[in-house]
Structures are given as C-alpha cells and as structure tokens.
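Dear Dr. H.,

I hope your travels went smoothly. While you were away I took the liberty of generating a structure for the chain from your last submission, since the lab meeting agenda had it listed for discussion. I wanted you to have the full record in hand beforehand rather than looking at slides cold. The sequence, exactly as received, is reproduced here:
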Amino acid sequence: GDVACFSEYMEIWIHSARIEGLGVWLSGALRIQVNLESLDHLNLQLSACGFSLHKDPGKNFIFRASYSGCFVQQQHGYHVLTLNLVKRINRFGGRPHSFMMKCPVVPVLLSREQIQCGPEYIQVTRQVPYDNWDNKLHWSLSLSDHLIVALEDASLLQMNIDMSGPDITVQGRRREVLSPIKVMENDGEFLALKLVSDQYTYSMEATCPKVTMSTAEETVLHIFKRHMGLTKRGSYDNEALTVSNVSVNQTDNFTVHETSEFVTLIIPTAQILQTKTCADGKQLLQPFYWVDVVLTFKETNHKMHWTMENTLPCTARPAASHITSSPGPNTTALSTLNFKHENLTTEQPP
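The corresponding predicted structure, in token form, is as follows:
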C-alpha cells in the first residue's frame, strides 16, 4: 500500500484482500477483539492507540496512525510503524507480509493562529505550510467547501491574501465571507476557509464575536477545534478532539465549555477590555480586547496557540470606568493592517 504523510499522522491504503491480516495484527498487538464489520465500534477501541480504520469508496481500507500512537517509533528522522499482515493461505496458517509506514518528522509545527475581528473586516494569519519533506505547495482557497479558487483569484471570494513572508494572511469583509453560527446559545460569525492542495487541507477557519455597539459583562469566545497542521483533503475527520488544558495569558479568571466542534471561553470583560482613540475622530473612543490562549487536546501532541483581537465600533461616550486606555502588548489595530484594501469594494451596508 501507499503511505501518505500529514503533519500529525500517516495513512496507508490496504486492499480489502489484505484487511483480514491487519485485523489479526491489531487484535494481537492491542489485545482486542477486532470486528471489521463494525468500524465505529472498532475505532473507539483503536483511538486509545492513536489509530483509525476507514473504508474508501472502492470498499478498500485506509489505516491511519498518529505519530504519537502505539508502536510508532522515531528512527533517523522518520516516524516508523511496522505492520505485520498475515495473509491466510489455508485454514492451518498464513504467510506474514510486512508493511512499513514511514514519514519524515515535521521540522516546524504549524500551531499558531492569529485572528483580528473589526466591525467590518476579519483577518486571519497563520504560518505558511510546507509538506513533511519541506516542499512548497501550490495552494487554492476553499470557502465553505464548495467555492475553490487559485490564490491569485482570491478577489473572486471577496478576499485579499498576503503570502510574502513566513506567514499567510487572509482578509475579507465580514458581511461577504462570514456565516452566522450559534454555539451554546451564543451568536458568532464563522469563516469556513481552508487552503487546499492535491491531497492536503490546511485550516484557516476562524470565528468572530458578533458585532455589538455595547460590551456585555462577560466576553464569550469560540475557538474552532481542529488539527492545526496539514490534514487529508476530503477526509472523514470526525475524530473528536477533547480539551486537556487551557491557559489564557491575560487572566486566570475564565471558564471553559466545549462542544464537538468548539471550545468556548467565558471571560469577565473588565479583565481584558481596553480603549483607544478612534482613528476618525478625537472625541470618539474605540473599545477593543486582545486574548492569547494556549490549548492542549488529549488526542494530539501539539499545543494550539490562538490569538484573538476584537475591535468594537467607535463610541461617542466614554466607556465604563473599569476600562483602561493603555494599549495592550503587541496590539495592532485592524485599521493599520489595510494592505490591499483598495481592491475591496468600499460601499457601506444599506
């Protein structure tokens, strides 16, 4: 079978004629009962070892192994897993057939995401992804899984892209590219954007709080759960991620909830909110906040570094007394990041 390498796992295609041999190996290695007729139940057992097994459209199988999974070793800069598949010759025995799954250790972990939400724009910055052999990939943009355009045609999706340095930054007008979502009774707006290239997908998905004129007592942030590196395109990535640890740089006072798709943070607004003078007028104040979060999931061996800056609409009256006016560390107002804004249509919403 052919081995495909991704940022956090590797996959091998196994012909249906050999799948019985994989079942024999799995039952012996993991000491479990293997029933290939019930893959959902089997995958619950395999997940404890960082493995999964799925059927492809041709009724053959794809076996996935996490680099942190059972029996996966690091040898000479490679992740290696040896599968001993027994091919049954007759009812008395079989001939072992050994497959080696082998992928290069990824030099750079693609674990950062920086989101900037303004009243009119969203901007997302991540590291430019390379494959396991450090090759540059030719990317297209996929919005909501059905609109796919080349990077140079990003304006067709009402987006701007900057890929000139080590990072890729995408920017779009909120009302053109975001979709409303509701997470645990809280409203937000979601950017369903991915980069796609051959067999790879790279998530640029992000959530912005809904635009409001006033600040609530608590700030609710939704962080989209996913593998942060290169994943398989069109994959059955329904693997649930479970939070094992959350830290927030700005405060220790927060609560965490999670659904199958999102981690929700609730933070007292007074602990993070600041104001700055509006760019348009000295009499106006603009509330904003900046939050740095580090998330760890039980199923992956990488941390997710997630940063959100949310800038609210300018307000004429001074905000409540608890708001400080000192800018936060490293804050860059979205209005100063208007690279290529002239490409965007600038008509105001009706």
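Two observations you may find useful: Helices lie at 19-30, 39-46, 174-177. The chain is about 5% helix and 45% strand.

With kind regards,
E. W.
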